[in-house]
């Protein structure tokens, strides 16, 4: 009786929400009743189900929105937010949603560049995995089970606390959720030495479209292959990942060289294009171009897996144009270098456990570069950053080579391996309330001007830097497969067809879908 009364009150609140809802409210009512009965405990129901009538709903929704472009009054809101506290809650949500035709989005850290983990224009429910973030480290076997709702900062912190000479090759932003990061590939300062985060995933627990909990052995190798770089949300809800740890030296060196002179910066960048992917795998040097106090600044932040004396010897021999000096460098532990690269200052390492950071609205695009660009092209980028609408613009060049060239492009869905010198990320930010169009047009203009100098046939893109300008499903005159292929080959190249076959096998009715998800292809033979 107590559960029945609780369910009745939730139903009244749900049916009175002011947000646009499905034309068939009985489906939503059926979904909610199905979910409440399966959970079968009013205390659990109150912890898992959150409606727009809850006083905290708006702040709860906004707390994991990392791109303020999708935190406006006219941004579509979910009918419900579900916050599972155990795997059974996710199973129940999937089974009930499938039964009643409810559309779901799965959110881990909320860093999807186009907000697809928490925004869509059809009535939807968010499964927010923030409560599923346990981290279990097995030092003897050098492995970790990490739940999808954890951030990579929380993961780094726990590893660093256990053993200072073990690490993991993931991204530089600590608030990113491991769920989306791992399932799209995931790279950071260790990619030249150790590759992607997805390259070190050795098992996973998922809830599939039938509501079953599967691990690698039960899901099979094709399914397991697909979620390690193909975007897990196209296939399932990933509950947790088992990852293998890597060795890091007890002492690493971080450094940064900054130039405000265009010619000085161009000289370094020109040479950087020829050496950054070919020097020792222990050395990672990024290029960052952005405005600083109304001036364009070129920064060259880097990480060396060893002491400063060895770094200086290496750079003076291979890349003297950088002009690196001992004063530019600082020795520290690997976990401290994570804090440094995240630009968190001198904070102790427990700052990595913070799940949110101040964020702005932004638009981003990506490219892969296979031949060094002429200096005149870099100069044009420099001048673009001097434009008024690029006040908060940023260009990031990330070097590849090393391990990235040693792993075949078919071993995971992430195909941008051998032959790529570096990746470019084009970003522009703006403050809340400003007109977004001019800032987004700046990114589009720079991206269009670069078409001649980046990878082509196809022009590549990185799924973790999702870009809806590449296309999205509209359902007009083309099959979903034909639509999806137009941008799918940019993200996945030749791996797109295999991803479609896996999708057709494991989720033939396309339950897990979004504006750029992997489509089914009904004529493909089931794997």
From TrEMBL:
Broad class of where this protein is predominantly found: secreted
Keyword NAD: no
Signal peptide positions on this chain: 1-23
Xref: Gene3D superfamilies: 3.30.465.10, 3.40.462.20, Uridine Diphospho-n-acetylenolpyruvylglucosamine Reductase, domain 2
Cofactor(s) needed for function: FAD
PROSITE patterns, per database record: FAD_PCMH, OX2_COVAL_FAD
Keywords, ordered alphabetically: Cell wall, Disulfide bond, FAD, Flavoprotein, Glycoprotein, Nucleotide-binding, Oxidoreductase, Secreted, Signal
Subcellular location: Secreted, Cell wall
GO molecular function, one term: oxidoreductase activity
Cited InterPro entries: BBE, FAD-bd_PCMH, FAD-bd_PCMH-like_sf, FAD-bd_PCMH_sub1, FAD-bd_PCMH_sub2, Oxid_FAD_bind_N, Oxy_OxRdtase_FAD_BS
This protein's name: Berberine bridge enzyme-like 18
Organism of derivation: Cardamine amara subsp. amara
Native organism taxonomy: Eukaryota, Viridiplantae, Streptophyta, Embryophyta, Tracheophyta
């Amino acid at each position: 009786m107590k559960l029945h009364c609780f369910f009745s009150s939730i139903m009244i609140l749900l049916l009175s929400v002011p947000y646009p809802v499905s034309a068939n409210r009985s489906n939503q009512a059926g979904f909610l009743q199905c979910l409440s009965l399966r959970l079968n405990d009013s205390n659990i129901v109150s912890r898992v189900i959150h409606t727009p009538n809850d006083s905290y709903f708006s702040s709860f929704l906004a707390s994991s929105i990392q791109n303020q472009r999708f935190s406006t009054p006219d941004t579509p809101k979910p009918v419900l937010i579900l916050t599972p506290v155990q795997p059974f809650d996710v199973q129940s949500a999937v089974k009930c949603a499938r039964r009643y035709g409810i559309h779901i989005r799965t959110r881990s850290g909320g860093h999807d560049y186009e907000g697809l983990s928490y925004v869509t224009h059809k009535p939807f429910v968010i499964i927010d995995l923030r409560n599923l973030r346990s981290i279990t480290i097995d030092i003897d076997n050098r492995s970790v089970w990490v739940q999808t709702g954890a951030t990579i900062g929380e993961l780094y912190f726990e590893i660093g606390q256990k053993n200072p000479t073990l690490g993991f090759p993931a991204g530089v932003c600590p608030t990113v959720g491991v769920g989306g990061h791992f399932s799209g590939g995931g790279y950071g300062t260790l990619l030249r030495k150790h590759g992607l985060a997805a390259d070190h995933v050795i098992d996973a627990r998922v809830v599939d479209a039938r509501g079953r909990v599967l691990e690698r052995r039960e899901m099979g190798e094709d399914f397991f292959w697909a979620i390690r770089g193909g975007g897990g949300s196209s296939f399932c809800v990933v509950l947790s990942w088992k990852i293998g740890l890597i060795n890091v030296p007890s002492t690493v060196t971080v450094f940064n060289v900054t130039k405000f002179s265009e010619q000085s910066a161009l000289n370094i960048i020109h040479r950087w294009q020829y050496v950054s992917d070919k020097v020792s795998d222990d050395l990672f040097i990024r290029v960052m171009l952005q405005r600083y106090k109304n001036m364009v600044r070129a920064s060259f932040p880097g990480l060396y897996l060893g002491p400063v004396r060895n770094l200086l010897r290496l750079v003076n021999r291979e890349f003297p144009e950088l002009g690196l000096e001992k004063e530019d460098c600082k020795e520290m532990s690997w976990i401290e270098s994570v804090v440094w690269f995240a630009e968190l200052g001198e904070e102790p390492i427990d700052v990595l456990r913070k799940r949110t950071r101040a964020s702005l609205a932004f638009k981003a695009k990506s490219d892969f570069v296979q031949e060094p660009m002429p200096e005149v092209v870099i100069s044009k980028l420099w001048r673009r950053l001097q434009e008024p609408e690029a006040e908060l613009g940023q260009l990031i060049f990330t070097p590849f080579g090393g391990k990235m060239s040693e792993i075949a492009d078919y071993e995971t869905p992430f195909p941008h391996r051998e032959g790529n010198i570096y990746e470019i990320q084009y970003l522009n930010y703006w403050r809340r309330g400003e007109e977004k169009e001019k800032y987004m047009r700046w990114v589009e203009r720079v991206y269009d001007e670069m078409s001649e100098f980046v990878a082509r046939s196809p022009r590549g893109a990185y799924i973790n830097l999702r870009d809806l300008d590449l296309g999205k499903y509209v359902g007009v005159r083309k099959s979903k497969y034909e639509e999806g292929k137009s941008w799918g080959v940019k993200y996945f190249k030749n791996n797109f067809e295999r991803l479609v076959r896996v999708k057709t096998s494991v989720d033939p009715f396309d339950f897990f879908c979004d504006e750029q998800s992997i489509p089914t292809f009904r004529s493909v033979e089931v794997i």
